[in-house]
Structure formats: structure tokens, C-alpha cells
Design goal:
The chain has a domain at about 1-140: Immunoglobulin-like. The longest helix is centred in the middle third of the chain and has 239 residues, at about 150-390. The strands form three sheets. Strands 3, 7, 8, 10, 11 and 12 form a six-stranded mixed β-sheet that branches. A four-stranded antiparallel β-sheet has the order 2-4-5-6, with no helix packed on it. The protein has a two-stranded antiparallel ribbon with strand order 1-9. It is about 65% helix and about 15% strand. The chain is α+β, with helices and mostly antiparallel strands. The protein has three helices and twelve strands.
Length: about 400
Amino acid sequence: MRASRSSSNPLVVSTGGAPEQPLSPLAAPANGKPLASAASYTASASDTTLRIGSLITVDRKQLPEARVLSYEVEVNGRIVGKCGREDETTRIQGLLPLTTYQIRVWAISNSRGRTPSASVFVKTLTSREALAQDIRALGQPSFSGSEPVSIDSIHREIIDLQRETGEMEGAMSDLKDQTDLECGKLQAKVSELRATRKEDESARAAQRSRLRELEAEKRWLEKEKSELVSKIAESVARKQRALDRRRDKAKKAEEYRRMTDLIYEKMERERRDYENEQSELVATIDKLKLEVDKANQHMHELSQEQVDVTSQLQSRRAELTVQEEENMKLDSKIKSAIHKQRQVKASRKEAAMTIAKLQTEVDSLKFQLDEAVSQRQQFEILAAEARRSSPYTAAAVTRPPPIHPA
């Protein structure tokens, strides 16, 4: 980026060529500040206010001394350029095309006091726009039309460029020294942190060893406690088992006594039941003897009835034989009737097919008859029209032939 301190030259952001380490782009501002791709940059040695367009302002009266020694340009929070108080231009490398950057200028006094300006958001041009602007800049002369270009002015410009290069190299060396100093401080701080970390690690190791000892002691105590608890539980279990055995024996003795009483009562009851059953059995045997006599008498009667039924069955068999012969004759008659019925059904089916064919032919003849009638009507209409149009041509119209169905 090239900033000119004359009121007529704008602040131009050049994007030609890819930088080795481009600056990181900045997002669009959230406070609604306008973005600018170019701004004028005006100041002089006697001015108390530095302006870049109407966006960046540095008030020199805020410095401890009235005069400014140099200026530093900050892009996205990084100091990327430095220029002297009398320098006309400064250039910032490493910008990307069509990218927004936050730019701020620091005024450095003789006593190294620093005063920042307000931030401004600048958007770079595209590569095509930057190339067109460079071509236009090459086509414009850097001298006025009334004064010719002299070797002294070119020499002064070269001297200014050399001085600018020397100042940039000095700024780079100062920045390197400052970086080395900060690196040394950081390394010392890292060493202190490492020592502190080692002390903390040793303390934690001692605490871990003590914790392991306490855990081992705790495990031993827990083991002793578990053994004592198991012994106490075993003793209590033995006593409980002895009490259970004694209680079980007393319960079994009581059960045996109760079972003995029940068995005695059952035996007495079964004896009484046996005597009653014996008396009932004798009475039942007497009843059965009477029933057997009755059954024998009934069997004799049934034998007589069986003889009668056998004779009746033989007569029925003879009748059944005659009936079977008659059934066979009827069966043959039924078969012949079924055969005749099937023949009648076949004849009916053939007759139905013949009727369907005849109906189809009749429909066809009706259609032909309708067509012939319509043709005859059309012919009669034509003949009537011909008679009306000319009486001479009416005689030439012949009567159509009669229509006979085919």
C-alpha cells in the first residue's frame, strides 16, 4: 500500500503480485463504519494533526513533545511499516486482493511517546482494477507542465528511496532486537515454569507415594476387618445351626407323637368300618343271590325270544333277496333314463347354437334391409328434387328396383 502526503495523490492499495507471507484478512466491521478503497493522506512537519482522508486522525498535541519523530502503520493489529517525519510515501507489502483490512497510524515522538489514531477499514482492489490503476499511474507524469524534469530531482528521489530503505532496515533490526529480547524473557519464564512444574511434580510424586502407603494400610485393615467379620458370622451361624437342630428335633418329636395318635385313631376307625363292611357284605351277598336267580330266569326267557327272532330274521332275509333283485332292475331303468336325459341335453344345446346362428343372420339381414330402405329414401328424395328442378329430366329418372331381402 502506498500513501502519499500531498493533497492531490490518493492512498492507493496495490495488489499486484502474490506476497510471500500475505497479511490475514479482516472481517467486515460490525459497527457500520464505511469501507474505503482509497483515501487522501495529508500532513506537514508543522501540522499538529495527521489526516488520512477524513477517517484517520492523529493529534500531535497529545504527545509529550510538539514534534513527531516518525510514524508506524498498523494493519490488523501488527506493525507492518514505518516512515520518517519528512517522508512523502510509504509502502505496505503482503496485502490480498479484494480483502478488508483494519489500518491505524501511530505517531512516535522524540521521547518515544506513542499516540494512535482512530481505526479505519480499507478494502483492497481486485487484481484487474489494481493493474488498470498502475497503467494509468505510469501514463501520468510526476512533474508539472511548466517545469521540466531534471537529474537533480531524480537524484533526490533516489536519495529519498535509499533513506527510506535504510530506515526500514533499521526498523527491522529494532524489531528483531525487540523480538530477541521478548524471546529471552519468554524463555526465562518458561524455565521458571519448568522448575515450578518439576517441584510440583516431585510434591505430587511424594503425595502419590504417601497415598499408595495409606491405600495399602487401608487394604490391610479392610482385610483384617473382613476376616473378623467372617469369623463372627461363622460363630453366629454355628450357634444358629445348633438352635435350629434342637428346634427341629423337638418339632419332629411332637410330629411323631401326633402321628402316633392319628395312627391309633385311624386303626380304631378302620376296625369299626371293617366290622360294618362285613355285616353289609353279608347282606349284599344275600341280595346278589336273589338277583342271580332272577337273572337266570330272565336268560331263559331271552333264549326263547332269540329263537323267535332267528326265525323272523330268516324270513326277512328271503324278502330282502327279492327286494334286491327288484332294485337291480330299477337301477338299469334309471341308467337308461339318465342316458336319454343326457342325449336330450345335447340336442337342446345344438338347437340353442343353431338358434343363435339364425338370430345372427336375421340381425345381419335387418341391417342390410335398413341400409336399402335408407338408400331408396335418398333416391326418392333426389328424384323429387329432379322433378321439381326440370320436368324434362324427370322422365329420365328411372324408378329404383324393388328391394327384396337376401
